[in-house]
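Protocol step 4 of 6: record predicted structures for both targets in the notebook before any analysis. Target 1:
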Amino acid sequence: MVWLYPLFLWALLALLIPIIIHLFNFRRYKKIAFTNVRFLKQINQQTKSGNQLKKYLILGSRLLALTFLVFAFAQPVITNKNNQLNAKKQLVSIVLDNSYSMNNIGEEGPLLEASKNRARAIINASANNNEFNIITANVDESLLHNTNKQTALENLDKIKISAGSKSFSQLLSVQQRLLAKSELIKSSYIISDFQKNNPITITQSDRSVKQTLVKINAENAENISIDTCYFSSPILQVGQPIGIEVWVSNKTSKDIEGLTLDLKIDNKPKGIASYNIKAFGKEKQVINFVLEVGGNHQCVLQLPGDNMAFDDQLYFSINLKNNFKVLNISDDDRYIQAIFNAQKGFTYVPMKSGNIQFSEFQNASLICLQGASTLSTGAVTELNKYAKDGGNVFVFPNANLPFGGLQNLASVFGFQIAENETPFLSKVSSFDREHPIFNQVFEKIPKNPDLPSVSNYFPINSPAGITIFKLPNGNSYLQDITAGKGHLFICASALTNEFTNFQNHALFVPILLKAAMLNNFKNEIYYQCGQTDGIETDLKYQKENNIQFKMGKFNYSPEVINTNGNITLNTNGEIETAGNYTLSSSASDSTLSAISFNYNRNESDCRTFNETEMQKKADEMGAELFTKSAEKLASEISVAQKGSPMWKWCIILVLLFLLIEILLIRFLNPNAKIAA
């Protein structure tokens, strides 16, 4: 126990005053003479010993009353062994969870408000000279600086639910870095609902830091969410069926039947799906639709609302081409021309191998090399650049040239091809059914499909290539070689009847069509709110792009980065509202593309650690666990920092001893009765 104001203890010298009064104010007794005591029937004889007992009891009660009155002014405090009693300035660091799960409702209302109330209690209960910093789930840099008490309270009022939530491991790493910079006594508080899908996996490296986990409980932690969606096929075409696969999760303790999900495209209903999902399970359904026109389409998937509305909608965008440009470098283009020349939605551009116009490469969806003569170094360089920027190249060797005329191409794209063809009378034995080029080609794949026949081929090999068609001897017949963002498809046979019947086979047309459309959707169909990663686009970079994100009245100009001639957008995590946005040029006010953002689904599973699990986690971290109200938290912090004040008990004892004194004076009678 210590005294906050020990100088008041000098007032104990005042106890000498009542002692002196009681010791030296002796009472004199008078003798009264009676002529005849026999006439008295009874007298009251005051005994000296009884009067002294009463006097000492009154003296004791007065002394004790004065003593505890002095103690009350000196303010005694009971402290723990490690209490500093504000002897030194402290740094208080608060990790405040403002992720979307904190929108749930608890006993005190929204969990975020309950968390802020506890943060206020921590700050108010701390000493006035302490410093504070606050680390939010989105790591708001404006709150990371050490501030005084008043500024910290003002900063708390600014905190809102944020889309860009980090893991606890990341947040605690930030906190440890900030604490390590300070020489003050340090305290750490982590305020959250502590979801199971975001466990604390880091311990405090500085054991001198007092760490407290403050858990906020929600009344209802159940939720239904749209997790993700993606196209069944990467090949999307105007007027053709498009399938969107949607995963929905049931994060409740009950099975759900007949849950409906709606699809709207450009604000018009386009499809519906029904789900039956087991408790804490998830289910996938496919919604098929057709787009009659190309261009930019903004889409949204919608579930019925629940207590966590942020994941009941999923936005995505479709940027659909109306036309695909196909170049064919060949001296004999009859087969490729037959596919694309009259095909709706395609523009066919033939070129001679001796007169290649490189300027046409820029907007091409596919470049075919059909038995071309040996390519020059410049042509190979331009093809490599085209592929790395996301283009697709489909190659058929020349039957009359060594290496099929592809030796320059092989050295640049990293594959090997034999100098001479190999006779081989057989059929393709197998194919990669999962390759994107076969998506939606087959309604049903037969057990023994009819595959192309081979008479001659140039053996090809690429360590990084994916075999699409395989021969019975294990060699590749058709390979997909990744080149930057694009692909090089190379066939081992020339398109002549002496080599193969591939050009007359039923798979020839769909494979070439799919190759032309394969990279139409290089961009993601949606991005996450608050993300800091760059967003790659196929928009061409110009010095004055003036790109803007627009949604309703919201306008935002991102950082524009030149990436190999294309635009990469850096939003710096400042897109925090989910929805369908347009990319526009402020110079021409024209819409360049559609782009969508959604909230992070990590917060959808609201199941939290129970108190037993949290206590185990706190013990592992060497931390304390607190689960009570903000008022209780303030009281505990006050006791921990300032000790347990005893002045109120002193006042109670003062009143008690004064009452005892009054009772002694009024009711204690030391007189004795004797008979005459």
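Target 2:
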Amino acid sequence: MKKFLKYWPIVLILTITGVYYWRLFRGDVPFPGDLLIGAYLPWLEYKWGNVVGVAIKNTLISDIFSQFFLWKNEIARNYLQGQWPLWNPYSYSGYPLLANFNSGALNPLNILLVIFGSINGWSLFVVAQSIGSALAMYFYLRLCKREKMSAVIAAIIYAFGGFSILWSQFVNVGTAMIWIPLILAVIEKTSLRQDSKWLLLLSPLFLLMVLAGHLQALIYTVIISLGYFIYRLGLKNRTFIVTFCLAGLLAIGMSAIQLLPTIELMNSSIRFVDDFSKAINYGLLPAGNIITLIAPDFFGNPSTGNFWGFFDYHETMTYLSILGFLGLTFSLFNFKKLQQAKFFSILAVIALLMQFDNPIGRAIYLYKFPFLWTSVAGRINMVTLLSVSVIVAEMMDLWPSLTFRKKLKVFLPALMMIAMVAAITYSSLKLYIGQLQNPELLLMEGNLKVALRNLAVPTLLTFFLLGTMLWAGKNRIWKWLVLMVLLADLFRFGWKYIPFVPKSYIYPETEVLTFLKKDHSVFRIEKELGEILPQNTWTAYQLMSPSGYDPMAISEYVKAFSRDLNKVEHPGVTRFSEINTYDAQALGFYNVKYLLAIKRDREGKLGGNFYNHNIDLKDWQKVLETKEVAVLQNKRYQERARLLKADGSPASGSAQIESYGNNKIVINFKNLDGDRLLLTDTYFPGWTATINQVPEKITKEVIPFRTVSIKGLKEGRVVFEYKPGSFFVGLGISLASIMAWLGWYFWSKSQA
């Protein structure tokens, strides 16, 4: 019983997490599978046990099934095969996997997919982020001498606040959020004990931050940690400064296994030249979005199909919780009373300013702050959420000591904002929009009705908190009531937005996909531009394509793709490589054997007998047909490995792929008059080749693919292997750094 009383906050956090994820206990999965199979062919042809098909909850989180789940599944598959997850052969005719920072290929939580399988492991991965973030924040706040219940409330805000929930299924940032409070805890412990050896723990924690796979979170954490170090320890103690710097250097060394491959890929990728974020003003928010601090659905919600706000819901949402907003106003009115929260109060204000369109927010993009200027501004909301969580814990401790007037003052900004926005919205609705019949204004009338309706719940929750907290005394029951309101607030928000689906919705089999998988030759597929087989999803079925979607795509390949397949004379770069022409010869050169075409009627609806008029059916043979999809086989298909003469024309002979793996390809050839062997896989540094066990240089004479010289050879065996020096050098540096850290750590303990 005593142990339970001691650890009841941890039990409470675990119980709350279990309640939030209750649908997992009935076998559902936190994954937008409803969008995958309910909006895209070939799955859309089926009802999946429903009367009218699959209802879609959220239309804006397709990246989860187009990138993150696929990466994690492929990473786990590589580990189960006993190899490093270095190369992804499925999109862009192949490109790096581990070097792609967002994939988090070395994230320790990947072990969950290895042990429990891709679907169950994914569910546990998502849940682990919430549990880890909550417990880490609770531990840090207890170290800061916050009361247990105050720390629990703040931990729930951190783990289930707006940003955490919106990004929970993207898995990398959620993992990063586990380690941030622990990094702060190390600095806090150093301050409390005045002992520099605690700073040694920063090295493995920053390694875990790197391996989480979220670059913006890493950069923000480095900046926050440096600021918090100065705030808590100052710059007078030379031992602290030296230890902090050495721990940082060792962290960089320990992370070299990830950092060096990522740097190599970044230098070749479209990351720094893609105009995606610039086209949306870098995601910097208009001033009106400040209302989403209180009313997250003022501009609608994608789960109810009425979102009408700026850009993208999960990239522009500032919501923390009603209690989190009160914490923010509390810190501004009671700044002098704050302890640790004083630092976070300043940090929260800076983070909010950087999220909105103003000179401070634009500065990152104007002056191209390293790595941050290519990202969307809204992701700094994780810093706001972190800061507000710490502030709320301190507010809850100080609250009983405030006078009634000061308590009321904390609520006034929220009440005034709600009242003012409601008045403006209602006035616009009644006095302006209602007088006109312009279709655009009628649409705005509907949007304003949504906005007014979605102010109701935040207003109600604010008054609940007002009634609970204004008369809060020294008895602790009021904190439990605040927790109940907080859970109602955040769970309502999360359950509304985040989809949970049956396991049968996770990349299910269809007649079309089964047919393609039965062809065991080495080939690629393509699909018509439209509502069919979203980018990269073919990876789940171990099918390959020259198309792809990734902000880390290789620049040279992306340009060649646009030039060769879309006939663009002066190609730029984009993270979306999709075909919009259907040249059988060009696609055949890229090893495309099958094209998935959509069947429509004369009005363009699914299920007719007409094909896209740009598809020349003389070059394609129909090999499978369902009600809404046709699989067309390319009559001009070319094998992936082939022999070429010096002028690039086909040579006499043969090239047969003996084995094809992620990191190793074996080809046997017989040659009559060829000069080189072409493998239509993407050229990238790190691939090596041997011919009859003799090393041979790989060239890119046929951009963007790989070639090796076979001049004068009648037959042979070519082995391509991906052995990137950036990875293996990084591995060596990491191991050496870990050994150095272990030596330093045990030496420091012996000196204690």
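Step 5 preliminary note on target 2. The two ends are 36 Å apart (CA to CA). The chain is about 50% helix and 10% strand.
Proceed to step 6 after PI sign-off.
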